[in-house]
Every structure is written in C-alpha cells, then in structure tokens.
C-alpha cells in the first residue's frame, strides 16, 4: 500500500516532525502564558504505531488519563488529543485557579477549566499549523474524558482502522522541570490528509 | 495452573481448562464472548469496526471486524470441541467515549454493538447478557470454568455478568 511506503521515506517523516514542532511549539508557549512559568517541550516523534502499542505511550491501556479530544476539520482532517496525567492536571488547576483540589474527584469548574485549557492549546497548535501549511484546519468543540487510556485513544484510530493495523502518530510531550511530563499531544491525521499536507508544503513527488 | 490469556485490539482468542481471557481498555470497541458451559470452552473477540465491507486494505485483519471475527472464532471453538447449539454470547463495550453530534464515525460504538447482535441472531446464538453503550471504558475477563464475565470500569468498579 502506497501510504505505508510513504512513511518509510525519511524526508517525509522529517516534514511531519516539523509539523509537530511548529504546532506544539505554539501550544507550549500558550501553556506557559496560562501558567506564567516556562514550559519545555520534547522533540516531536513521528512513528507508525501498531494499535496494540498506542496506549503504552501514555502508561498502558488501563492507565487513567484525562484527555481532551477534538476532531480537526477542513482541508486535512484528523484527530487530536491533549492528554494529561491526573497529578499534572491537579497541579495545573492549582496553579491556574488557585483552588484546593481534591485527589480523584473533579468539580464542574475543574472539568470546564481543563476542557478550556485543551481547547486553547489545540487551537494554538492548529492555527499555527494552518498558517504554516496554508491549509484550512479548524477544531471542533472539544470533549473531555477521564478514563482508561486504551478506551480513549482507540477512538482516534478508527479512520486508520479501515486501512491497516497501525496509525501514524505525531507526538509531543510538554515537560516541566526538564523531566516531569506535564502533558502529551497526539495528532493523528486521517490517512487521506497526508498527501494534502505534503503537497501544501511542497514536498517533491507529492 | 490458570493462565491469563490476553486478547489484543482487533484480535480474538479461545481458552479452556480454567484459563481466563482478558482484554483491556474497550472504548468504542466491543468485547464479544462466546461460551460453551458443558465443554468449558470460551472465546473472546476485541472488535474494532462493524463491517469488513468498509475495509480499504486488500489483505485485512479479519479479527478487526464484527462480521469476520465472529465466524472465525466460532469455527475455532467448534474445532476445539465446543458445540454450536450450547454456545451463549455476552457483549461488553461499544461506548461512545466522546459526544459529537452528527458525525457518523463517532457513533461507531453503538454500530459495533448493533452489528454484533445482528451477527449473533443470524447464527442463532443467544445473547444472554450485555453491558454496552454509555460513555466509559471497560476491561473484561471471561473465566472458562464458569463463563462469568467480569467487567471493570473506572467510574463503576467491578461487576459480573
């Protein structure tokens, strides 16, 4: 299948890495403004991940995570997740709202704040990507879930499910103090979107 | 010695002699289980999509789709000594993890459940219990000694079907 062959092309993978770099870079800046302290980010990784292994990226299929999911609509549709672990989320809420948070429970206010943070970050990720590629990309209204990583992430794989048993994942981690992972961004473009992204960026042979 | 047999995403396995089948993190995916209580043979499929008609790959993984996974698993169970007339089915999963109005792919959970039920009806296998739908993830275990299906979720803890 030609799509899978494309992902063996190092140059194209580098282009996708740059896509992740630009998007997440803007999102990290937005997050550091919200928190009023610097947020580092990892070098993006772009990889073709078997469905079975995707949940391992966030601690295993049963790891409880907080995920803001939104669908990317427009010229290059796809799925996007902003994922944070519970302890990071609580710290984020304390810093942002200056309220005492309770472990394992979330008020409506906290859920709404987390959803809004996801919304802001995904919005800045996508708008910088849209500027860079000149493709129209707009996020849907975000939706928040606190559940098993496997159950959440499998939702973003359905478009790939019809094509094979792996999905191409553009992943960036936000770091606090260099090594504590604050959150992760997953962009999973639909299989049909890659050609459009490559063409928009003038990749030869696309 | 009871063994725990893990069923991956888009995968199915069968078990007997007291072994336990387990699949983790079912969201919109469906866990379809079959059990023959006399032969003590159990089968579990972790189904991702309803129908292989939508497959856009030439050689697709038959365990991924409800309409191909169920007949394959059924055949393997019969070959292992299960009787088709004694088989009963239980279903779990098929949640709608995120709510988006008007998007068909996002309704995949309920469609997976519907297709499994249609397939079971056409094969004359009774569905004796289900815990499907809603908006949360599930981890399930099927004990081949008893046929009991244990369902665990973050919000609601553990329950048995």
What is the N-to-C succession of helices and strands of chain B?
Answer: EEEEEHEHEEEE
For the sheet with most strands of chain A, the description reads:
8 strands, antiparallel
Helix content of chain A: 40-55%
Radius of gyration of chain A: 17 Å
Report the oligomer: heterodimer
Major sheet characteristics of chain B: 5 strands, mixed
Q: Count up the domains of chain A.
A: 1
Helix content of chain B: 10-25%
CATH architecture call of chain B: 2-Layer Sandwich
Binned strand content of chain A = 25-35%
The portion of residues forming beta strands of chain B comes to 25-35%
Describe this structure in words.
Chain A: Keywords: Chemotaxis, Hydrolase. The complex is a heterodimer of chains A (about 210) and B (about 160). Chain A has about 210 residues and is of the alpha+beta class. Chain A is about 45% helix and about 25% strand. Chain A is built from 8 helices and 8 strands, in the order ααββαββααββααββα. By secondary structure, chain B is α+β, with helices and mostly antiparallel strands. Chain B has a single domain, classed as 60s Ribosomal Protein L30, Chain: A (2-Layer Sandwich). Chain B has a 5-stranded mixed sheet, with no helix packed on it. Chain B has a 5-stranded mixed sheet with strand order 2-5-4-6-7, with helices on one face. Chain B is globular, with a radius of gyration of 15 Å. The two termini of chain B are about 25 Å apart. Chains A and B meet through strand 3, strand 6, helix 6 and helix 7 of A and strand 3 of B.
């Amino acid at each position: 299948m030609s799509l899978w062959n494309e992902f063996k092309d190092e140059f194209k993978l580098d282009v996708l890495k740059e896509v992740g770099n630009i998007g997440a870079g803007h999102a990290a800046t937005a997050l550091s403004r919200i928190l009023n302290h610097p947020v580092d980010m990892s070098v993006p990784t772009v990889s073709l991940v078997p469905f079975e292994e995707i949940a391992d990226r966030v601690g295993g299929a049963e790891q409880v995570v907080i995920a803001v999911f939104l669908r990317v609509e427009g010229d290059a549709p796809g799925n996007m997740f902003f994922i944070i672990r519970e302890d990071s989320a609580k710290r984020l809420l304390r810093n942002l709202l200056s309220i005492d948070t309770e472990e394992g429970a979330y008020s409506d206010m906290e859920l709404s704040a987390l959803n809004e943070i996801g919304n802001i970050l995904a919005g800045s990720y996508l708008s910088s990507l849209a500027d860079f590629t000149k493709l129209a990309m707009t996020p849907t209204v975000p939706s928040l879930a606190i559940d098993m990583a496997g159950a959440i992430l499998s939702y973003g794989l359905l478009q790939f499910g019809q094509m094979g048993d792996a999905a191409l994942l553009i992943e960036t981690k936000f770091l606090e103090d260099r090594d504590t992972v604050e959150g992760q961004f997953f962009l999973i473009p639909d299989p049909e979107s890659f050609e459009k992204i490559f063409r928009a960026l003038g990749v030869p042979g696309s | 010695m009871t063994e725990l047999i893990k069923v991956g995403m888009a995968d199915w396995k069968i078990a007997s002699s007291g072994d336990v089948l387990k699949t983790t993190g079912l969201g919109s995916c469906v866990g379809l289980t079959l059990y023959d209580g006399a032969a003590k043979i159990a089968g579990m499929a972790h189904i991702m999509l309803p129908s292989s008609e939508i497959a856009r790959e030439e050689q697709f993984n038959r365990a991924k789709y409800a309409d191909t996974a169920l007949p394959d698993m059924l055949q393997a169970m019969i070959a292992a000594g299960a009787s088709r007339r004694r088989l009963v089915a239980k279903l779990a999963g098929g949640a709608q993890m995120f709510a988006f109005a008007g998007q068909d792919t996002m309704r995949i959970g309920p469609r997976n459940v519907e297709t499994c039920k249609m397939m079971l009806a056409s094969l004359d296998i009774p569905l004796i219990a289900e815990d499907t739908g809603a908006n949360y993830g599930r981890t399930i275990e099927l004990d081949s000694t008893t046929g009991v299906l244990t369902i665990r979720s973050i919000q609601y803890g553990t329950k048995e079907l």
